[in-house]
Amino acid sequence: MADGDFNPSELFGDLEEQETNSGDQEKRLFLKDIRSMLYAFGDVESPLPETVAVLEEIAVQYIIDMQLGLNVEPVAPGSNSNYSSQT
């Protein structure tokens, strides 16, 4: 690999597998992504596992809330009820 090539898997290794096998059977989908994003936005190379876990919980809950919110008030196809008619 050239000096300029960046491989995130080398940076974080198998930490995600260690964290997911540490007791709770819940599948963690975004740990590696969140860890990479934290580093990209200026955090340390290896953020605290608790920080990553809390951010993942927030992200997953947000996705669930958005999905439930989208299903609560369906709009009829072809309807423009969400848009104001400006001319």
TrEMBL record:
PANTHER family: TRANSCRIPTION INITIATION FACTOR TFIID SUBUNIT 13, TRANSCRIPTION INITIATION FACTOR TFIID/SUPT3-RELATED. Keywords: Nucleus, Transcription, Transcription regulation. GO terms for biological process: transcription by RNA polymerase II. Residues 1-26 are annotated as: Disordered. One of its GO terms (molecular function) is protein heterodimerization activity. InterPro entries: Histone-fold (IPR009072), TFIID_TAF13 (IPR003195). Pfam families: TFIID-18kDa. The keyword Mitochondrion does not apply. This is Transcription initiation factor TFIID subunit 13. It comes from the Eukaryota. The lineage of its organism: Eukaryota, Metazoa, Spiralia, Lophotrochozoa, Platyhelminthes. It is found in: Nucleus. Belongs to the TAF13 family. The keyword 4Fe-4S does not apply. GO terms for cellular component: nucleus.
